[in-house]
Amino acid sequence: MVKWKYILGEEALPHAADSADPHAPRIELRTEWLKTPGRNGRFSIVPIFLTFCGQGRGMSGADHTFPLYKEVIHMSTVFITGGSRGIGAAIARTFAFKGWNIAFSYLHSEEAAHALQNELSARGISVLAVRADAADPAQAAAFIERAVQELGAPDALVCSAGVALPQDVLTHVSDEDWHRVFSVNVDGLFYTVRAALPYFIRRRKGAIVTMSSMWGQIGGSCEVAYSASKGAVIAFTKALAKEIGPSNIRVNCVAPGVIDTDMNAHLSAEDMQALAEETPLGRIGTPYEVARCVRYLCSDGAEFITGQVIAPNGGIC
């Protein structure tokens, strides 16, 4: 009698229960490997099929082939704007931990960007850091084009570049400040997605994640410009999800609550403590808690989720 055991949870192979039995099945295993080419000389080798030829009691002597994976495993690629620090850097690290190749843009934090590139490259993945201002349409497009040239078409795009103003009443907000917030938070999103979208549509798959804020959902006093720009991001996300859903491309938004990043560095310890106390979970969030939400929305686990706003905010709104 041939016993069966499960391999990787689902696929089965016959197994000799007693190797001392001369009539027990004798199994010859042959593994078929796939070499997946990458950029810069990198590649991955993964086993695809396992074939056995068995003779003995309960065995026909014919070859039997079982796939080790339902799908060929490949090195997925994500493009991230504003990826050198804060939530953007946490997003890059979270994808790197899962073995994704990464291209990220930065504007001012060159030293941090290069340090992050070296850190992630040490994991054996391809990492590209590109200086680009998301608010400049030419630079936004150039980032996407260079990333495609170096790493290939993206499987996911995360638009995390953003700016905020110091808290102040609306009458003190200058025209220049107002336009700067919208040029990065809204125009930069538009320029980046517009440049990347043809690569998603051509392949008829992929995930796009935008970055809003709880203030984009409920509005913040003395944060009118920032709140308005982040509200526009949510509207952009929902409209685009309907537009490109028929092309099997998902678009979702992450709207964090109060997160421990440089963007909140202007707040005093007392202010941060007060915000923590207002949060039902009783604490401030971390960049990695946001990053894990982003990665989930780009994963197969979220393949039926689109046009949604996911809010890692500790229950504050």
Structure in words:
- The protein is an alpha/beta fold and 317 residues long.
- The chain has 8 helices and 12 strands.
- Strand 6, helix 1 and strand 7 (101-106) form a beta-alpha-beta unit.
- The termini are far apart.
Task: List its salient traits.
single chain, 317 residues, alpha/beta, seven-stranded parallel beta sheet, three-stranded antiparallel beta sheet, 8 helices, 36% helix, globular, disordered N terminus
Radius of gyration: 24 Å
User: What shape does the CA trace take?
Assistant: globular
Strand adjacency order, main sheet: 8-7-6-9-10-11-12
Please state the structural category.
alpha/beta
**What share of residues is helical?**
25-40%
End-to-end separation: 61 Å
The number of helical segments is 8
Low-pLDDT residue intervals, each spanning 5 or more residues: 1-20, 27-49, 68-73
Beta-strand residue percentage: 15-25%
Largest sheet: 7 strands, parallel
Mean pLDDT over all positions: 84
Strand-and-helix sequence, N→C?
EEEEEEHEHEHEHEHHEHHE
How many beta-strand segments?
Answer: 12
Write the layout of secondary structure elements.
Blueprint: E1 3-7, E2 11-15, E3 26-37, E4 43-55, E5 63-67, E6 77-81, H1 86-97, E7 101-106, H2 110-121, E8 127-131, H3 137-151, E9 156-159, H4 175-203, E10 206-211, H5 214-218, H6 224-244, E11 249-254, H7 269-278, H8 287-297, E12 309-310
Parallel strand pairs: 6-7, 6-9, 7-8, 9-10, 10-11, 11-12
Antiparallel strand pairs: 1-2, 3-4, 4-5
Give me a quick take on this structure.
This protein is α/β, with parallel strands linked by helices and 317 residues long.
